[in-house]
Sequence to fold (332 residues):
Amino acid sequence: MKRLLSGIQPTGVVTLGNYLGAIKNFVKLQNELEDIDFLVFIADLHAITVPQNKTELRKNIKTLAALYIACGLDPKKVHLFVQSEVIEHTMLGYMLECNTYIGELERMTQYKDKKVKQIEGVSSSLLTYPVLMAADILLYDSDLVPVGEDQKQHLELTRNIAIRFNNKYGETFVVPEPYIAKQGARVMSLTDPTKKMSKSDPNPKSYINLLDDINIIKNRIKSAVTDSDGCVRYDIVNKPGISNLMTIYSCITNKTYEEIENQYQGLGYQQFKADLAEIVANELTPIQERYKELITSKELDAILDEGRDYASMLARRKVSKVKDRIGLGRKK
Ligand code: AMP
Ligand code: TRP
Fold:
């Protein structure tokens, strides 16, 4: 049996980009891989490395959990939990920090990028964040970690920390492998198709929030920026707008670009956009309905309780083993 683990930060709204580029991928892994133990957690401790509003954070944690289930993660197949509810993450994080060099952390690209954006000062946790991420992974002896390309460097660091620890204290951790989706869709902004669709874009018309009103979503698609030649053809360089919409179309319907091109030959953008608006609406309507049920029910809490209990059981055992390896506490 292989263990898969991934975490997602509860920051801001969840966009169509998150759905097609990340969430749908988890659902696919859950359904296609056999003999796996899959853990997914809401990385709330990671979210507070930069300032967060308390009420918003609480809301985002629940929303994200509900959306994951609504999008198809099956609680019978996946253990879903909230990171801060399993205290061993921070405990192992500290023990790993004692085996990580500052120089290694200062080399992390994401740290360098985020550091310059901080107005109120840089927290020390922004620097140590990748060690907490290593703890998240090593705590559960994870074999495979599905992440986006941007997390590859953190995965490499995790592997180095695991190997170093094993060499120093004896075999303790499984050395994990990253699992980067082969064709992870990159969904672009609807107003500027040369930029990635992002919830932090100041123009809300540039993205689709999965929980937006369906009519607003349809209008966003219909008014997406495209070129003026009117031919539905995939050409990312010269026709980035229509190519982006074709990516969305293809991800949802599983049709190839060629099939879409043939289908819309001579039909123009208006028909294509109207159809895509319906396709997206049909994909998101059941998700929104399921979300509404979950967010007000006790079911979600029960799912998160089960996830927490299962994760805690594994985490307690592991931390006890690591303490023993290092020589912490008293011998039992
Ligand atoms: P973020 O919202 O940046 O924290 O990203 C959460 C997850 O969604 C990561 O796995 C990203 O790679 C993925 N993601 C975010 N935006 C997009 C996008 N526009 N297209 C595809 N994937 C995305
Ligand atoms: N750092 C990841 C991100 O920003 C989220 C994350 C935290 C994670 N811990 C993890 C992903 C462990 C995979 C495994 O997207």
About this structure: Residues 154 and 171 are 21 Å apart (CA to CA). Residues 5-7, 9, 43, 46, 133, 136-137, 145, 147, 151 surround tryptophan (ligand 2) (CB under 6 Å). The first strand starts at residue 2 and ends at 8.
